[in-house]
Amino acid sequence: MPRPISAVIHLQNFRHNLSIVRKQIGQAKIWAVMKADGYGHGIKSIWRALSDTDGFAVLDLNEAILLRQEGWKGPILLLEGFFHSEDLLIIDQYNLATSVHSEWQLAVIENTTLNNPLALYIKLNSGMNRLGFSTDEYESVVRRLQGMHKISAITLMSHFANSDLKTGTQVPHQQIKQFDSLSLPTCIANSGAALWHSDTHYDWIRTGIVLYGASPSGKWKDIAHYNLKATMTLRSEIIAIHHIKPGQSIGYGSKFTAVKPMRIATVACGYADGYPRHAPTGTPVWCNGLKSTLLGAVSMDMLTIDITECANAKIGTNVELWGENLPIDDVAQASGTIGYELMCALAKRVPISYSG
Ligand SMILES: *Cc1c(COP(=O)(O)O)cnc(C)c1O
């Protein structure tokens, strides 16, 4: 028997979450974002559950090629464009849309002979200062690409630094006003903007995290009323039980010391499985239908939970680290991170099964 830990991916919840996103965005089309191997869920197994999308957005050429080999014939967008000049030939061969964000990429496009017309997303730097043309140069870049016969379609693109903020001056709507005067198809909104800024939906949105049932803000309460469902449950089992007395401690560094008699359980899950090592005492854990909490430091292969109130917990009892009963956002928040990081960091050694 393998070690008792596994991740269950709930395929039907992708369909459900995609339909919730559709209801939010009216006529806009959806790029379902599948970078980082589908936020850790496995593109190869989940893409069919999302095939009602209008297109898939990925980062890596290999992810795009995989989708083509799997039989997806619809649009695919490379979110960060191409990394080397040779990549453009593969983009041409597999009929991919690509973003362009830098001058060097324009030169590559000008100097490469293509078999098919190219669909481009021209990226504006609207305040992130990671990728994109500045507001000063943007319009001339668009005009320059419009003048090339090898370009079949141009879409204006930007990415928000603060779409998870619901109000306030940091929401950079004014920077994208520049797009309105260009009268071209436009794609700006990520999950946060899709939920909370309907004036940014335009022609296409790019949603990742909400399809995976977690919150763009990192806080479950911000999405609780949308009825999104978890797509990943990380579960394991109790492998040992101890009774400890006041004054006794738990785990490396003796970070937790009991002040009353306690019943505690050792669970087969640790940071080498992708559980956050920074999760402190008090981080929520779901044990056999009851909320429990983490105690002491997370080890590489194990963690300890409080089962003083879980009378029926025994060796082999099922423990959910996050998922259908326990929002990944709540575990992430307790650990000082966001659901995105936890799902992407699921370790290779954790066996994945797909349900639905
Ligand atoms: C990852 C990414 C998205 C999706 O972001 P979510 O917050 O997961 O919706 C959208 N656009 C770009 C450019 C991205 O890199």
Automatic annotation (TrEMBL):
GO molecular function, one term: alanine racemase activity
Superkingdom classification of source: Bacteria
Pathway(s) this gene product operates in, as recorded in its UniProt entry: Amino-acid biosynthesis; D-alanine biosynthesis; D-alanine from L-alanine: step 1/1
GO biological process, one term: D-alanine biosynthetic process
Reactions the enzyme catalyzes: L-alanine = D-alanine
CDD domains linked: PLPDE_III_AR_proteobact (cd06827)
GO CC term, one of those recorded: cytosol
Physiological role: Catalyzes the interconversion of L-alanine and D-alanine. May also act on other amino acids.
Cited NCBIfam families: alr
HAMAP family hit by this protein: Ala_racemase (MF_01201)
Similarity comment: family membership: Belongs to the alanine racemase family.
Name this protein carries in UniProt: Alanine racemase
Species in which this protein is naturally found: Providencia heimbachae ATCC 35613
